[in-house]
Write a structure and sequence with these properties.
about 350 residues, mainly alpha, two-stranded antiparallel ribbon, 4 strands, about 60% helix, about 0% strand
């Protein structure tokens, strides 16, 4: 929503919360005839113990000072009094007070109009932020209206596009939502919410419009390369960088899993064709991806046995048994390796069938 610093909930307007005691509450009067509050309530406000002053007068509450310095933080080209409204809105939004935040953003927008401020970038942010409040409150129609206004001020602005897409989807206007999500992905391919929504909406549109669903879509605008480059050149926040790194890690895991499965299948097919050297290479590559996969060691041992490389076959069986101490195939193939090495065996159980690859 912005760069506002965090502040405790409910203090966005600078006043005390309704349930917060003032400095003079719960005190004992000095005048004669005044009554003292019952001892069970004395000195306790909102669960906080009060201490008497040495003079026995007014009780004082020991509470930390509230940091409101964020309210005076610069906000683009906005004058201080409007920047303060925006910063208050940001803080209220962070603490889930969407209705109050909406009011602050509305005051800031009205203040810009009254002051004759014409800063498209700042106004775009204000409309986009207010749209986020509408979206959180379930008012998708007004969210769309504010996002559209923001996009008129700053075409291809990412957040208004994404919020409008979400609002369209909520209203089941799937074609328009699809177009906005696809536009978002032209600007930034790392927006996972847009990827997920495109997949979800594609299924809905196929069900709704049939095989010709693409022909019924509104035209998807082509985002200029200059806009895409400008977005890429923007400094990335820590939150966005973390999300991108997580997505990249997930993609890498999926890629490796798919590669492993393919190599294993190719190795198995080559063994069936008695192409043991080629199969061995496939299994060896599998182990660079998953070095703790027991099945690959026993499969590669078969290839090594067929190639009369008995010592290496024994080592693969040893590795398999370290991973799965009761693996029968590893025991059997190690026995074959010992036989090839002409090593005497003791307590070896003969099997009436061979164990092959999995």
């Amino acid at each position: 929503m912005g760069n506002a610093q965090e502040k405790p909930p409910g203090s966005g307007g600078g006043g005390a919360r309704p349930d917060q005691a003032t400095a003079g509450s719960g005190t004992r009067r000095r005048g004669g005839g005044s009554m003292e509050k019952p001892r069970s309530e004395k000195g306790v406000v909102n669960g906080t113990q009060r201490e008497r002053s040495p003079a026995g007068g007014q009780e004082e509450q020991d509470s930390p000072a509230v940091d409101t310095s964020y309210l005076d933080a610069p906000a683009g080209a906005l004058p201080p009094h409007i920047a303060r409204l925006k910063n208050e809105g940001n803080n209220l939004f962070k603490h889930g007070q969407f209705g109050d935040a909406l009011e602050k953003y509305s005051q800031a927008i009205d203040g810009c109009a009254e002051a004759g401020i014409d800063s498209p970038e700042d106004l775009c942010i204000l409309y986009s932020n207010r749209a986020a409040c509408y979206l959180k409150d379930g008012n998708s129609t007004d969210c769309i209206q504010d996002c559209t206004k923001a996009l008129e001020l700053q075409p291809y602005s990412l957040k208004p596009l994404l919020r409008r897409a979400m609002a369209y989807e909520t209203l089941e206007r799937y074609r328009k939502a699809y177009v906005d999500y696809k536009t978002v992905l032209q600007i930034d391919t790392g927006v996972q919410a847009a990827h997920d929504s495109v997949h979800r909406i594609t299924k809905l549109l196929i069900e709704q419009d049939g095989p010709e669903w693409r022909e019924k879509l509104p035209e998807i605008p082509v985002v200029p390369m200059s806009v895409q480059q400008q977005h890429r050149d923007k400094p990335v926040s820590a939150e966005v960088a973390q999300a991108r790194a997580a997505r990249a890690a997930q993609e890498e895991v999926r890629r490796k899993e798919a590669r492993f499965t393919l190599l294993k299948r190719e190795g198995n097919d080559l063994v069936k064709k008695c192409h043991f050297q080629e199969a061995l290479e496939k299994y060896s590559e599998c182990l660079t991806i998953k070095p703790d996969e027991c099945t690959i060691y026993t499969n590669r041992a078969i290839c090594l046995l067929k190639l009369n490389r008995f010592e290496e076959a024994k080592q693969d069986c040893d590795s398999a048994l370290e991973l799965e101490p009761a693996n029968k195939k590893a025991f059997y193939r190690r026995a074959l390796a010992y036989k090839g090495l002409q090593v005497p065996l003791t307590n070896h159980r003969k099997h009436t069938h061979s164990f092959f690859f999995c």
